[in-house]
Amino acid sequence: MPRSALAAAALIALTSLAHAQTPAAPAAGASAPAAAAPRPPVDPTAPKPFADVIKGAKEQPGLFPIWRKDEKVWIEIPKEAFNKPFLFSVNVANSVGERGLYASQMLGDELAEWRRIGNQVQLIALNTKFRTSNPDSKLALDQAFSPSLIAGTPVASAEHPDRKSVLVDASGLLLGDIPGYSTRLEMAYRLPFAPDRANSFIEATRADPQISTLTSRIHFATARIPAPPLTPMPVPMPSPPQATPDPRSMFFSFVYSFRALPETPAAIRYADPRLGHFTESYSNLGDDLKANPRVHMVARWRLEKKDPSAALSEPVKPIVYWMDKNIPAKYREAVKAGILEWNKAFEKIGFKDAVQAKQQRDDADWDNMDATHASIRWFTGADVGFAIGPSNRDPRTGEILDADIGMSDVFGRGSRRLATDDVLGQSAHDHDHAAHAWMGERSQRLAQEQCSYMADQANELGFALDLLALRDGMDMNGPEAEALAQAVVKDVIMHEVGHTLGLKHNFRSSTTVTQAQLRDKAYTEAHGISNSVMDYNAYNLPLKGEPKASLTNTTLGAYDYWAIEYAYKQVPAEQETTELAKIAARSTEPLLAYGDDFDQGVGGPYDGFDPRSNQRDLGDDPLAYARKRLKLSQELWERVQARPANLGDDPLRNRRSVADAFRQLGMTANNVSKYVGGIYAERVVPGVTTGPAFKPVDNAQQRDALRFIASGLLSSDSFKFKPEFLATQTVDYNEWDRGLPLSIPDAVAALQGRVLDRLMSPNTARRLIEQASFLPEGQRKGAVSLNEVYGTLQGAIFSELKTGAEIDRMRRSLQREYLKRLQAQLNRSTNGATAYADAFSMARFHATQLANELRVASAKPGLSVETRAHLAESLDLLNSMLKATLTRS
Q1: Are residues 321 and 253 part of one domain?
Q2: Which residues contact 183 (CB under 8 A, 6 or more apart)?
């Protein structure tokens, strides 16, 4: 049949079908029904009805109700909750246990709110860095500074007709990389790990009127581990993950808390630079009369008396710390004692039982990682040895809302002399500052609150136990050693609780106790060994024959009472400014001396130039303590070399003892080097305090430090070990990375390198050049000069050139390390010396002198082949440096 005929037949058939389906016309006189209104077409993209989505699901009522059905989880957001701020925080409950990736850690918090754009719901982090006290400038501020998107997802339901709320799929919202862990993993392993949504899920939920908490179990993976290079790279690459069964795969549990802000904001207390409190800071751009727009609010808990008229009253709401059920039973009393010690400071300002400690039951089925339980959490890791005391705060006022102190289990091993080791044989990580640096201001705040006090205390504990056991016969498993371990746990808890109460480090407080007081047992038991538990206090170990007092801190110091008073003392609003000024004015009292992390040194231009602000020194004369620490280390080495081997001894026992002493000296080397070119810093407030803000360290002390460095730390005679001892120090043959023979020259070179790095740095050169400008004209004569320092250092390091003595391996290593740093000094294009022309010319002057001395020494007869080869190499290297083309700006 032709195509036209087919078309005609189809048309006839359709017409007939249409007539057959047309209903008959109604009979005459019958009323016709009204025509039905046409139904609107169904929108396939429209959200499903609320009831259909949660059919069969179970509700957890709360701030944002949570609905669960099998593996499905939804968050319900009431209409009135949109565009209303709350606190959003992230903690990591489970991790991989190495390289800064540990469990039981706070990760940060944000002032956040829900926003709805059409059918998309956004979780927005509000910008609190810039604020205004002038309503007229709010619009300009909002236009100038952007918020950030935390996560977004489509609405999962239509609005409930009665509840006026919508649902969002929790998986779509919270299974991404909200904490930015892919970057942290890349920093740790240099591998591109990414979240794997298909194998991630919501593993736990909890809700009440104040908070809604969801825990996401996130799988991170990388497709493959690259093959190692055929030849070693110039810059060593980190190994792939070592603590997971498969290095390509790992799980993290992130605890996300949505917490309601206090309906009534807490009263604000502004910080004073003479004391050390953590702050909530922002720029107030609403007042154009102030040159400095920065505002700093003290971070503190809301503490109010039940009876404001009483001299001593319980608080309306105490500060409660929950002790994690993972804390070993043997340490719980020490942890509790460390928490409750702070009540002494609060009682002094009128609060009874302001701080409380509660033990989580061993059979408890709730997790204190949410944002409403301040806690002391015990965690472990393969290479971990630190404690951290971070907190979550109300950004509007600085009020602390939650705090989770994380303590690694280093004491479980440390009290039995395994503290300096890790499980996998890798080096310990003290800080994770770099991992926080890219994450913004709030996460950098967490980095500041993390501290290595616990790891350092465990290392010091090992050093102390070893020395006391070898000197006095202390039983390492006996009651005296156990009591010391318990005291150290209490000391660390006092320190970390101090952080969560809002106190920063005070690295100057140890210098406010005299040497005589440190030897007085009655004094140290009553007052401790430092005037603050917020310092990194060294152990009060006596020299042989000296009286024995408290070894570690036992109680709060004068500074701690003062800092708590400023932050928490209840004062009528109209009297607050005057009363706080009176409290802060006590800063000139000797016992209240204060110096923070930057005063101690954090790197870069802030290398710490005040020798009174140190980690791990003790007493009012840090230089004297440095000499004492060297003597204690030498005593330990001597006793270890005489210690007989016993059946069942750990093969690495002596290595640890030797390493412990070198570790103590590493900090000492940095501290004593601060004297050279050092400057005393005082926190001067214009119009309030008098005296200089900066004053160069006394010339006699600078020269005394130089002599100790030259005759002590740079002398081979300070590091004597018997060949027969070194020959018997075995390795652990059960381990793959079993180590090499014990090398004392390598350990000494690392120690001496710290001294050279400090004394030959551009920062030290600048201070030596400029220190005279801080002195009156009549006091400048006889000041320590850059020429004197460089000359003394070079003369001590190359003393054999004048005496004609042989140069042993340890001294050759020191001289090579010196030449490396001298080469860097003479390279203007890389060392920044173009800013310090005098430093460059002085380094070149001494390099020329050294070349002449090397030339003369090389011609002397009777030297060994090793010494002659070393002199020739050194002279050739030095001549190359001096002949190199200079890069001039």
Answers
A1: no
A2: 438
Q: Are the beta carbons of 823 and 881 closer than 8 angstroms?
A: yes
- Of 267-271, 410-414, 812-816, where does mean pLDDT reach its minimum? 410-414
What is the C-alpha separation between 432 and 453, in angstroms, rounded? 14
> Residues 98, 104, 110, 114: what is their CA dihedral angle, to the nearest 10 degrees?
110
Tens digits of residue pLDDT in 422-447: 323 333 333 333 333 334 444 445 44
Q: Does pLDDT of 359 surpass 60?
A: yes
DSSP 271-313: --TTS-B-EEEEEETT-TT-S--EEEEEPB----BSSTTSSSB
Q: What is the pTM of this model?
A: 0.89
Same domain, 206 and 326: no
Please state, in angstroms and rounded to a whole number, the distance separating the CA atoms of residues 124 and 144: 17
Enclosing H/E stretch for 465:
helix 453-472
Query: What domain range is 321 assigned to?
Result: 266-620
Which secondary-structure segment (H or E) carries 842? helix 837-858
Is 106 a domain residue?
yes
| Contact (Cβ atoms closer than 8 angstroms) between residue 179 and residue 190 | no
Tell me, yes or no, whether 301 and 411 share the same domain: yes
Report the sign of the C-alpha dihedral through residues 790, 792, 793, 796, in that order: positive
**Alpha-carbon span 597 to 674, nearest angstrom:** 15
Residue of 102, 100, 91, 94 lying closest to 184 (CA atoms): 100
Is 808 strand, coil or helix? coil
The predicted structure's pLDDT at residue 884 = 77
Q: Quick check: 406 and 387 in contact, CB under 8 A?
A: yes
3-state secondary structure at position 67: strand
Residue 680 has pLDDT above 50, yes or no: yes
What number is the average pLDDT over the span 523-538?
95
Q: Label the pairing between strands 375-379 and 319-323.
A: parallel
Neighbours of 499 (CB within 10 A): 25
Instruction: Give the chain's domain count.
Output: 2
Structural Rg of the chain based on CA atoms: 34
Dist CA 369 CA 375 (whole Å): 8
Q: How many Å apart are CA 888 and CA 190, to the nearest integer?
A: 36
Three-state SS at 179: coil
Burial of 757 (0-12, 13-18, 19+ CB in 10 A): middle
Cα 848 from Cα 869, distance rounded (Å): 20
Q: Which residues are CB-neighbours of 132 under 8 A, at least 6 positions away?
A: 138, 141, 284, 285, 286
* DSSP string for residues in 314-368: -BSS-EEEEEPTTS-GGGHHHHHHHHHTTHHHHHHTTBSS-EEEEEPPTT----T
Rounded to whole angstroms, the Cα distance separating 622 from 558 reads: 20
Given a contact cutoff of 8 angstroms between Cβ atoms, the answer to whether 808 and 864 are in contact is: no
What pLDDT score does 12 carry? 36
In a domain, 29, yes or no: no
